[in-house]
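Researcher: Excuse me, tokens okay?
***
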Amino acid sequence: MLLELSAPEARDLKQALESALRKLLEEIAATDQRAYRDMLRERYGRLDQLNRRLEVSVEEDSAYA
């Protein structure tokens, strides 16, 4: 799947992802159930990877602006 974003959309999405990642870390730290914590860690990993990919894209767009 390919999704094209404008520079402002990419920045907004990056900020939303960073907020979600912070909340996930808090939830991971607060849970005692191993299976739930593992699921949250997997989700964190996916969102973190997406955030890193988006960071490269945002930086490239900033370099050409």
In short: Helices lie at 7-30, 34-64. The chain has two helices and no strands. The two ends are 26 Å apart (CA to CA). The chain has one domain: 10-64.
